[in-house]
Amino acid sequence: MDPLTVAAASGLRSRMESLDLLANNLANAATSGYKGDSEFYGLYTSAEGRDPMTGAASFSLPVVERQWTDFSQGTLLPTGSQLDVAISGRGFLAVNGPSGHLYTRNGNLQASPSGLLATADGYTVRGTDGSPIQVTPSKPVEIMPDGTVRQDGQAVGQIGIVDFKNTALLKKMGGTYFQNPDSKNPAVAATAATLQQGKLESSNVPVAEAAMRLVGTMRQFEMLQKAIGISAEMNRKTTDEVARVGS
To answer: 83 with 192, same domain?
Structure first.
């Protein structure tokens, strides 16, 4: 395969990954607590792409080396619901997922049928002591800035807000949930975060910018497709010319 086709094919692959990320961001632009993803590009040089005499790279190919998540805070929007909470500052709500601890900034909470404070997906919220928080669904709930949950003037628990030294190590688990796969990056109590009752944090995806990037990436994809077509036509003509000279 000639260098032009190889380079164009590599570009197509990286643009496909970019399109997937951008499309997912736009699909979750209205999801509370969603954090947008971006691609981190790198250059790859195969063994065939090195000069056999000097070992130096003759050409490199663009690849999406990894994706990274933007953890910047979204806008806090009032909802009026007493069980909605938004985190102001760095931090996550800790919840009990189906296979372990998960972390989220989506504070759209509800009371489960058994009275446990849980996310909209049914994952119970962990208190500062690691236990779930029991509430009486029929009674008003007051959630203080430090996470203390009060009913009838009495504290019934305290929502735990945790943070990580390196959020880049967190792994997305679908939707707005994250998992911490690195035991050397433990969850610690967030010291600079507070909760605001009756609000939710909006997605931090800049919709207009994401839409513009999506259009630009699609145009790049189309140009790379044309480049492959041109390369194939050049190869065909070269083969025809060689055959004509040989005859």
So the answer is: yes
